[in-house]
Automatic annotation (TrEMBL):
<feature type="domain" description="Aminotransferase class I/classII large">
    <location>
        <begin position="58"/>
        <end position="401"/>
    </location>
</feature>
<keyword id="KW-0012">Acyltransferase</keyword>
<dbReference type="Pfam" id="PF00155">
    <property type="entry name" value="Aminotran_1_2"/>
</dbReference>
<dbReference type="InterPro" id="IPR015421">
    <property type="entry name" value="PyrdxlP-dep_Trfase_major"/>
</dbReference>
<dbReference type="InterPro" id="IPR010961">
    <property type="entry name" value="4pyrrol_synth_NH2levulA_synth"/>
</dbReference>
<dbReference type="InterPro" id="IPR050087">
    <property type="entry name" value="AON_synthase_class-II"/>
</dbReference>
<dbReference type="InterPro" id="IPR015422">
    <property type="entry name" value="PyrdxlP-dep_Trfase_small"/>
</dbReference>
<comment type="subunit">
    <text>Homodimer.</text>
</comment>
<dbReference type="InterPro" id="IPR004839">
    <property type="entry name" value="Aminotransferase_I/II_large"/>
</dbReference>
<dbReference type="InterPro" id="IPR001917">
    <property type="entry name" value="Aminotrans_II_pyridoxalP_BS"/>
</dbReference>
<dbReference type="InterPro" id="IPR015424">
    <property type="entry name" value="PyrdxlP-dep_Trfase"/>
</dbReference>
<keyword id="KW-0350">Heme biosynthesis</keyword>
<dbReference type="GO" id="GO:0003870">
    <property type="term" value="F:5-aminolevulinate synthase activity"/>
</dbReference>
<protein>
    <recommendedName>
        <fullName>5-aminolevulinate synthase</fullName>
        <ecNumber>2.3.1.37</ecNumber>
    </recommendedName>
</protein>
<comment type="pathway">
    <text>Porphyrin-containing compound metabolism; protoporphyrin-IX biosynthesis; 5-aminolevulinate from glycine: step 1/1.</text>
</comment>
<comment type="similarity">
    <text>Belongs to the class-II pyridoxal-phosphate-dependent aminotransferase family.</text>
</comment>
<keyword id="KW-0808">Transferase</keyword>
């Protein structure tokens, strides 16, 4: 370690600089602590807590993005077990060199069908699919201007930055502002509008049809991140674009296999020429090992299941509505959300962490605090994601515990 400290002729003590960066996070209450937890298969949302915060009682998970508990679903687990025994653990390479398997091909066909597009392309995560696709599109279209919603996810922002083209940020879901920015741009410049359907920290939804109208008027391509909506909305789980009947108006739909689908991986769905050009030019696709076929097999089973089954979506929506209503009835600061996400405004990082600590230690309720930079400073919150197996009694327990904890003063941070 010592040789990482100040070196001859260098004016900086490397380790002291890293230490100070971590210290700043502690001071602001933003230092992240990972909870050492294991879910119990077949018993979701119950889990066990280990490590420093070990608890003898079971913990109820309230912040998982496995929104529909598909990560625990027997059909998904059976498909993964079968694939593991059939073909082994890893894919063995990039898609170009040894890492293309029948599971990848079948999953891409299933995802294309889900969104009513000609084709789909898999990536190792939703983050990578956004970064790789947006960066590559921007580079392939000389003079392109990318119009981006101000609340877009970090992975879209990274892709837009790496595209190296001009960008214009429009106020969140503000169509008048987007129209103004489009009208002010060079009419001859290629344009792309990048936005999300469900905004995961607010729980609100983009006006997709209105954005498509503007895109048509100004000759722009559209890029929609449906990460928090795939599996959750639409008759077959095709997202908000399916629910609103506008999937065919979008140039590219992007999604993850890691949230409602319950496994891991990301993808885009679009015309064949678009997936072909990304497949052929995007470093984030070309130069990395493809998903394990075991993951692809699990995701395939999950997507197929959710195409034919609405019960998970219905139970989840019911639980979310119930939790919002009960938070509101208890006079707790639940933020307005028109989706499955239930955010509770706390307003500062230190309190958010203290509430989260108290809920875990004193009540066995697990919800991670959400701080800057994930949300703006002053809007720190707890973000609850009830699933289809959170029942009314669990919701009552949670609401009572949050009321008690928020009623206490002063709140203390756990060591
Ligand atoms: N887009 C959005 C809107 C997200 O919230 C996330 C993850 N939280 C991602 C993309 C990245 O997806 P993944 O977790 O599959 O990398």
């Amino acid at each position: 370690m010592d040789d990482l400290r100040a070196r001859d002729g260098v004016a900086m003590d490397y380790m002291a600089t890293f230490g100070a960066a971590i210290e700043r996070l502690h001071d602001e209450g933003r230092y992240r602590v990972f909870i050492d937890i294991l879910r119990n298969k077949g018993n979701y949302p119950n889990a066990r807590c280990f490590g420093q915060r070990a608890l003898s009682r079971p913990v109820t998970v309230w912040c998982s993005n496995d929104y529909l508990a598909m990560g625990q679903h027997p059909a998904v687990i059976a498909a993964m077990e079968e694939a593991l025994h059939d073909v082994g653990a890893g894919s063995g390479g990039t898609r170009n060199i040894g890492g293309n398997t029948h599971y990848h091909v079948a999953l891409e066909a299933e995802l294309a069908d889900l969104h009513g597009k000609e084709s789909a392309l898999l990536f190792t995560s939703g983050y990578v699919s956004n970064e790789a696709t947006l960066a590559t599109l921007g580079k392939l279209l000389p003079g392109c201007i990318i119009f981006s919603d101000e609340l877009n996810h970090a992975s879209m922002i990274a892709g837009i930055r790496n595209a190296g083209c001009e960008r214009r940020i429009f106020r969140h879901n503000d169509m008048a502002h987007l129209e103004e920015l489009l009208a002010a741009a060079d009419p001859a410049a290629p344009k792309l509008i990048a936005f999300e359907s469900v905004y995961s920290m607010e729980g609100d939804v983009a006006p997709i049809a209105a954005i498509c109208d503007l895109a048509d008027r100004f000759g722009a391509l559209t890029y929609l991140d449906e990460v928090h909506a795939v599996g959750m909305y639409g008759e077959r789980g095709g997202g908000i674009s399916e629910r609103d009947g506008v999937a065919d108006r979008l140039t590219i739909i992007e999604g993850t296999l890691a949230k409602a689908i319950g496994v891991m991986g990301g993808y885009i769905a679009a015309d064949r020429l678009i997936t072909d050009v990304i497949r052929s030019y995007a470093p984030g696709f070309i130069f990395t090992t493809s998903l394990s076929p075991v993951l692809a097999a699990g995701a395939l089973a999950s997507v197929r299941h959710l195409k034919g089954s609405s019960i998970e979506r219905e139970c989840q929506q019911q639980a979310a509505a119930d939790l919002k209503a009960k938070f509101a009835a208890a006079d707790l600061p639940v933020m307005s959300s028109t989706t499955h996400i239930v955010p509770l405004l706390i307003g500062d990082a230190i309190t958010a962490k203290a509430v989260s600590d108290a809920l875990l230690q004193d009540y066995g309720l697990y919800v991670q605090p959400i701080n800057f930079p994930t949300v703006p400073r002053g809007t720190e919150r707890l973000r609850f994601t009830p699933g289809p197996t959170h029942d009314a009694a669990m919701i009552d327990t949670l609401v009572a515990a949050v009321s008690e904890v928020l009623g206490r003063a002063p709140l203390r941070l756990a060591a």
